[in-house]
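Database export, one record per block. Field names are fixed; values are copied verbatim from the stored entry.
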Amino acid sequence: MKKQMKHAVSLLLAIILTLTAPSWRIQAAITPELPVMTFTGTEKATAVLANLDYSDVRASTSFAKEAIWETGALELMKGYASDTGTTKRFGLNDTLSVEQALAVAYIAAGREAEAQAAAETLDKARAADARLYPTPKMWSDGYIQLALNDGLLTQNQFADALQTDQLALTGENFLRKSSVTREDFAYYLGGVLKLALQYPQTRVFNSYSDWLQADPYRVPAIEAMLQNRIMHGDTSGRFRPKGFLTRAEAAQMLQNAEPVIFPLLGLTKNKGRVEGVDLQDDWTAGVQTKVRTVRIRNSDGTLHALILREPVSAVMPDRNELTGTAVNRPRNTVVALDGKPAAGGVLAAGQQIVYVSDTNQEVPYVQVQTGTPKTIYLGRVEAVDPATRAMTFLPYREIPFADIRLLDPKSIRNMTIGTKTIRHIVSAGAKIFTGEVQQMLDAIEPETHAIVVVEGGMITSFEMVDLDLLAEDGVVAGIVAENNASLGYVTLYRADGSGVSSGLDDGFSGLRTYSYADPISVRRDQRLAVPEEVIPGDSVFLKLDDENQVLDMSAAHDYTPVFGTVLKAGPATVMLRLPDGKTVQYPVPAGIPVLRDGRTAARSEMAVGDNIRLLAQINGDSVQVAEVRLEKMPNPVTAVYRGKYVWYDPLREEVVVSGQQQFIGGRWEPTENIGSVSIPLDESFAGTLPETGSGIAFIAVRKDAGGMERLVGFVLREGDRYDQVFDDTVASASVDGTRIALEGTSATLVNDSGTLVVRDGKLVAPTALSPSEHAMLSAGRDSATGQLRTDVIVSDTVNRAGELSVYRGRIAAVTTNTAFTLESFARLDGTNWSFFNTPKTFTTRLETTRLLTGGGVGNLREFTEEAWKGKSVYILSDGSLSYTISDATYGESVLKGRLKSLDGSIQDEFGMTVTEPTGLTVTEGRRYSPLTYQWVSETVSPVTVPGDAILIRKGLQANLSELVPGETVILLQSQAAGEAKVVIVK
């Protein structure tokens, strides 16, 4: 009974205590967040830190400082100890020797142990008194042996390297201690890392002025290093292939190569923010150990922990056998902070860090990031405005590194497609890559998938990415070929029309099909949708589960880009020649937007020969075009040449001809070039060239941004031929473009695939020619068939359609900066003046109208009624808009001839005009007689062209220096002074 009473009292007390206890005592404890990943420091950290105490790096401002600390902490490159061993140096500006370069390459590839084993095998084969000492000298032989095994060294080079008396070798031998060149290091490191040699020299050829100095056998390796962003050129646009490599440069290259090196070494790079640091004493081993737990919020949002341990005394009963003191075995890490290495104790809350971990979950290196905060996005470009340098971007997710190869593929599965766009200004110094070559801002197209780096609110880096990289682990991108919501499957293909399956045998399937079931999360054009709204032609992202079932679908009303050259542009269709040579026709009805340089363009601007991009939804035979983009105004064909074919140099990518002539004004005129002439290929040229051959080569060229002529069109004609030239009007042209008839001759000319047709400055097919357009032709009569086969056809229809007109009259009234009116006027029609006894008004614009007086260029603001009323003037105009007003005296005499030379100009050493010509000389002169209405031949003296003369070339306003010898010119002269008042190029 007492026992029951005692139990009841105890229970009552417990209830009372429970009811009267403070509320915090009865709340359930909050479970702390556990780290997803837990890392430890390394036992090597203390020794590595001691080795990194480089006297020549501590106070330096070297660009490679960060790379030196990182490669040192990962033991990829080590420094030197002094003779006394008290100080150490890295050797920032010391050049790397050949044997050191091979060692660096093999260590970076994780093959150091293999090299040491090879070195021991070599050394054991020597006599006892010939074995190498000290140890590094012997180990170097191991790297030499591996280089022979891997084909990086020849047998002769290997023999030279192992020769005992290295001083007996000459410069013709392989010298292992000689400084390694940049091109050789590219070959060694690229070979050890097994980078695929790149034979199309995209970056080498387009980026570096001295690439021809490189050993031809090293160029593919250099290209591979450039494409993998391991090597770069200097600030002056040179690669310096023969330059020696410093140790600082080598360290930077190893850091650049991390995406290639880290998988070989089992290393992973992470990025995060230190949320806090916890300190505690651990006595579990019976001795005191200081434990530092660094809590890191990883860039993917998960929690990581880095545990560093510093025993106060030895945890294990290890003692130094020389001194008897206890051995301390801390587990720490190397931290780069403020330009110098330190132990993990410097890590603190709030720091942004990058940390490297290995397969043992140890962290050998941490870098604390300082400076302007940097945010990196993976996403899609929505719009670009080159004028304001603004870019609108749709982020898919924020990523830790600008190099997508450093991302953990598993983290991509967690990607959530964003719905909110961001807009930033692109820095003028931003690095922009839309392929292998650095580009300007206007090269970025909407719908480009890219990695964008934002620093200080500005975009500082942009690089297009291949979204196939994302498909490896749960995210698939593509274009919808079919979506069947009732049966629950969607089929995708790539934007170029091809596709792969999601399995291992990707290359055997043209389409990818994925199943889904309700409910499924669907977004289309950044809004919630249902599966039925996703239609063929949409671009989509699918998030998949482990069984490749669709969990999430994000779609955009998207189209496949189609690139091609316009063959015909009709009112409702366009016919294109695709890059592979195929011809296609697509419907482009009225109302479809036509854009050029991001602005609306007239449909009439879409001309034959234009390179365009269509955005089209293509589903079998069904094609729906949403937009037409005309290429930015291309550099026109600037000249057509012919000459005896010498050869094609595939290394320099140049064609060599001799006896060069230029097609000018419908005639072949010799150029100033004597002997052989080399013409480099333009990057757009896609034809094939024979390395040697015989015959006459016809070449079309354009000028690049530097003024160099580059080959864009080529045809080689062999055999005996009798050349003829024609300056005539097209009477008819066959539909297939194989034949053309001229009004001035009864002969029918034959065109073929080799005919160079230049129409309005663009290379086009013969089918582009139309009846009634003026053309100049060069053709050869085939000795076997007797047919005239065209080699070159040049037509300028645009200039003729939009040419400027020349007027003359007396000024009746002037409204300053706005307009002026002539009492009556005369218009120049060919070589005659047509008179009109009516007033005519012309508008003036400060930004376009030029005022010419006897004293030179005048100020249009001084073109007032008080100063100019009653004066007779020339007007060069487009309709009623005046481009030039000149008070030059009346030129009543008309002279026609072929331009021989420009006189009085001064040119610099590069051939650029410094001072405009003051006159010209013509040959084959003919003067027009208004009495007999005939042209009369005459010998012409040099003609002065004053500064107030009107100049027109091919319908457009021109300067005298723009005229080309050989062109046909018409001069309106004053008979009294002989000066040319108007100069017109036919």
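Remark 1: The first helix runs from residue 2 to 20.
Remark 2: The radius of gyration is 39 Å.
End of record.
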